[in-house]
Amino acid sequence: MKLGIEGRRALIVGSSSGIGAGIAVMLAAEGVEVIVHGRSLENAEAVVAEIRAAGGRASALIGVLDKPEAVERLAAETLATGPIDILVNSAGATISVRGWFEVPMEVWQQQYQFSTLYAVQLIRALVPAMRERGWGRVLNISSGAAFKPMAFHPEYSAAKLALHTIACSLARELGDCGVTINTLISGLVMTMNTRAMIQKTAQAQGFTETGVELERRVLREVWRSAIPIARAGRVEELAAAACFLVSEQAAYITGASLRVDGGGAGYVN
């Protein structure tokens, strides 16, 4: 299937590693000019180098999205090099792993800034021009924790659920203008951090399996995972779904949330 996005320009926020990096690499392979954004220049440039080595077009922008003025600066630097057709909001991190009554209010505020408010600000800065040109794609990367929250880090689940609400609301605001906005809901994904957690857990339990068998045993016996496919997702699997949602082929999909979580609707019981 041809995605019909060759020659488009994309800003992938939070793409110097993990799911965002996977999306950047796959979009570039589809002929999209990609702006790789992250907090680490070294990591962002490594993704850019990978894309260029494969014949793609990419550049790097660095910035921490901790304040509105920092997000404004990112938007200005992005537009200074040309219009943006595709915006992927993939930034976000778990700031706290504390419970409801242990999470300070400032952490709630920080979490919303890192996971939600930056996306709102970038949408406001970049989408009006997409609307004028009659074509655009916005994709928010959320988490299964938004729909199956835990008792701990409630601020993370709430901030990620807000991305879904934003997409539903904006889809109605945009209507039939050629711009769509959707949400990709990620389950457990085999990033470097996930792999490290699995290895640490396996060592503590004395497990001797390797590869997927070790992964499945940790998920089943220790983490009590409810993922029917019984493994973590791969970055490439998330990236493929993301590329479809920002493609020409997905023109009739807007305001939707696509779960890519192995059937788990969240990744723990």
TrEMBL record:
The protein's name: 3-oxoacyl-ACP reductase
Naturally occurring in which organism (per UniProt): Steroidobacter denitrificans
Entries under Pfam families matching the protein: adh_short_C2
GO biological process per UniProt: monocarboxylic acid metabolic process
Family label: Belongs to the short-chain dehydrogenases/reductases (SDR) family.
Domain of life: Bacteria
